[in-house]
Here is the input.
Amino acid sequence: MTIKIEHLNLKDHKVALDNPIFKLVAEAASEMGLDCYVIGGFVRDYLLARGIPKDIDIVAVGSGIALAEKVALKFQGRPRVSVFKNFGTAMIRHKGLELEFVGARKESYQRDSRKPIVENGTLEDDQKRRDFTINTMAISLNATDYGNLIDPFDGQNDLKNKLIRTPLDPNITYSDDPLRMMRAIRFATQLEFEIHIESLKSIANNKDRIKIISGERIVDELHKILECDKPSVGFSLLHKTGLLPYILPELVALEGIEEIEGQRHKDNFWHTLEVVDNIAKTTDNLWLRWAALLHDIGKAPTKKFHKKIGWTFHGHEFVGSKMVYKLFKRLHMPLNEKMKFVQKMVLMSSRPVILSEDFITDSAVRRLVFDAGDHVDDLMTLCEADITTKNPKKQKKYKHNFKVVRQKIEEVEARDHVRNFQPPISGEEIMKAFDLEPSKNIGIIKEAIKEAILEGEIPNEHEAAFALMLKKGSELGLLPKTDKYRTSSKN
Ligand code: CTP
Here is the structure.
């Protein structure tokens, strides 16, 4: 869900600390004689008046791990402290909250890795090394100034002006941690903020550094962009800054309109972004949104011009679904049922369209439902989002056609139940009826029954299927075992 500013909570920051756990953290820090602050996303989202966030980052001027261990002793039930020694951080899960503790750091990064060389620092050193001014703000948990907002980079003003700006020279901030280039774009999309012009230029200059970021972390940001109300904002920014070719070259390949002998095709990159925005209005299913993003990727490698018919993209759905696998693998995305779902959507993405352009027959609808199974609604949602024509008449016509397809799907499904097709006659029953060992003929008979049901030649019922089995068996030269036949037809 996209975060939008309703009003800013810029006045009483103590309210952010209403939860009694903050008093316990403050108590533990004071007993240890160290200062500590709530910082980062918690403060930003509180100021954005989005309620009190569940993720809480605490920075200690001293050891964050030691503070976490002390705090855990004060919490009811003494929750476990997960320590990440390499990062110098510790985490406690308590009453639905996730508290992350870190020591204030002054950091310099090695050029070829995200791993920083860590040195202890002051609060301001720590704030300086963070990504954006809106993420640098801290609220004090110390007795002397409990609840005060510490904002040395004027993050409040950037919140008011809806601006993503780095606290240091953007070249330093981005080159220190290139993932931040994607974070800038993601926050701009989520919050509907602008990225400061110097930052944008710097992202374009440092784009090459995205190569050192792991696929998993890039995908986390892509997921967050896709989950926004208007994902196209993020993808346009990825495109504009030149990051997209490093991340999703398959999409970049869709850009452009070619014209030969006065025949043009649409720009499938910008079309795709429209489809993603459309689908974001109708579903929160992240993987369906991925399918919308990738539904046309097979069009670049299959594009051809024919003198008589113009531009074609024959088989792009099949090629595209194969490309989904390679893309998921490259980005270290899960190669599981989520990927299979995206592949299936891409593969079937033109089926309802072809269907709606023609006279809609029951058998074509039955086949669609049979092939799409439980995902038939998702497929229809994708196809509806794919309507991007600016011609109001055509827009109306296509929408109407899909409405008719949806109605037909319901009618056919209510009558024929082919959504999760279970053959009305099992292989065992066929074997029993003809006294057969497992063999090819059983498959042939089963296929003939399935085809007859999908074509509407017989209803999806046992009796009709049994009769067809006998007929098909005799065509194959099989003799029914009459006695057994009688027993099985009674069953
Ligand atoms: N941070 C940073 N550079 C990064 C990641 C994080 O400077 N590459 C800092 C920011 O100050 C950020 C804080 O660490 O606010 C916490 O990071 P994280 O939990 O990843 O993000 P949030 O800002 O909390 O936002 P979200 O939960 O939406 O990712």
